[in-house]
Write a structure and sequence with these properties.
381 residues; alpha+beta; Ubiquitin-like (UB roll); 2 domains; 8-stranded mixed sheet; 5-stranded mixed sheet; 11 helices; 29% strand; arginine biosynthesis; amino-acid biosynthesis
């Protein structure tokens, strides 16, 4: 079923020939009105030119009207040419839409170290037909993803629609994917930016697939005000719901994954420690391998918690897997075959209570399979 964008937004995509597969790989998202925006980007020191340019535009504080995205080529580690090519891609999109250059954001995703074929972008951008639906855009931004990722909510009559891509090179350090959320609610830019960082920390920054943070990734929220004002409390709750749903979809679509892992931690001394503890379990290669093999080896969970930096006394910790108590200050008797059978679900939940305080958090990950190794062993060959 087609998902319509909020009022005033249009999107589209085209096959530009950037992806070797010949699938759609060049996309535009545009607003008919100037939009306030909030932005978070990767902290990887080898960040791509698109990230550098995005940070500079963000610091200027002006409105945003459009995003142009190419998939199949990261345009990263391509020297000075990469910066020129990124600028040209923005310039071509601005010309296509009749917008000032500073109101157009760029994003790239794909193979690192390969020059961007800007001649293909120049030839293809005029062919993009903008429509009120999001599917073409959501498909064109994918790389190794197996599924399109879209989420939507409504709050007081305004709509929020989010799309994301992400399957590998996924690990918290903002960002861990490409994510674009748009809304027709009218929200002051200061409020948008003040809240977005926390939303990102609690959702996208709690996703891990393989422990590698990408050089190119970002999370963007645009509000064009076409609907009007809404209560900000419920609005930001809805934004976080959209971001959380997208984060879960990224984890479930992890390269080679067969199941989604949700890690819930409570009883932490601080919110940051709760997040770190949950992420550590979701990121543990040992535990992710056990998850794939349906092995209820709770010792790997406890060890990951201990490596997270979160404070706790092992004598006060409790661990449950799919609701089955495994550890409470010491090993508990449990039916290993029953626990193993419970792990064969499409979603597996790990619960840990650290017994230190009132804070809680969750993280999202997936199992580690031969499929992940296959995909990444042959990524450029």
């Amino acid at each position: 079923m087609a998902v319509n964008l909020p009022r005033g937004f249009r999107a589209g995509a085209v096959r530009a020939g950037i992806k070797p597969s010949g699938k759609p790989d060049l996309a535009l998202l545009a607003s008919g009105l100037p939009a306030s925006w909030a932005y978070a980007a990767t902290q990887n020191r080898a960040a791509a030119p698109s990230i550098h340019r995005g940070r500079a535009l963000y610091a200027q504080g002006g409105p945003l009207r459009a995003v142009v995205v190419n998939a199949g080529n990261a345009n990263c580690a391509t020297g000075e040419r990469g910066f020129r090519d990124d600028f040209l891609m923005a310039e071509l999109a601005a010309r296509r839409l009749g917008l000032p250059l500073e109101e157009v954001l760029t994003a790239s995703t794909g193979v690192i170290g390969v020059p961007l074929p800007v001649e293909k972008i120049e030839a293809s951008l005029p062919q993009i037909a903008l429509t009120p639906t999001v599917e073409a855009f959501a498909e064109a931004i994918l790389t190794t993803d197996l599924v399109v990722k879209v989420a939507e909510r409504e709050v007081a009559g305004a709509r929020i629609v989010g799309v994301a891509k992400g399957s590998g090179m996924i690990h918290p350090n903002m960002a861990t994917m490409l994510a674009f959320l748009v809304t027709d609610a009218k929200v002051p830019q200061e409020a948008l930016r003040a809240s977005w960082r926390g939303v990102v920390d609690r959702t996208f920054n709690q996703v891990t697939v393989d422990g590698d943070t990408s050089t190119n990734d970002l999370a963007l929220l645009m509000a064009n005000g076409a609907y009007g004002e809404v209560p900000l409390g419920p609005f930001f709750e809805a934004v976080e719901e959209v971001a959380r749903e997208l984060a879960r979809k990224i984890a479930r679509d992890g390269e080679g994954a067969t199941k989604l892992m949700t890690v819930r931690v409570q009883g932490a001394a601080t919110e940051e420690e709760a997040r770190r503890a949950a992420r550590a379990v979701a990121a543990s290669a040992l535990w992710k391998s056990a998850l794939y093999g349906n092995d209820p080896n709770w010792g790997r969970i406890l060890a990951a918690l201990g490596n997270s930096g979160a404070r706790f006394d092992p004598l006060k910790v409790e661990i449950r897997l799919q609701g089955i108590p495994l550890y409470r200050g010491g090993a508990l008797p449990f039916d290993r075959e029953r626990a193993s059978q419970a792990m064969r679900a499409e979603e597996v939940e790990v619960f840990a209570d650290l017994g230190e305080g009132p804070f809680s958090a969750e993280a999202f990950g997936c199992d580690l399979t031969e499929g992940y190794v296959r995909i990444n062993a042959l990524y450029t060959t």
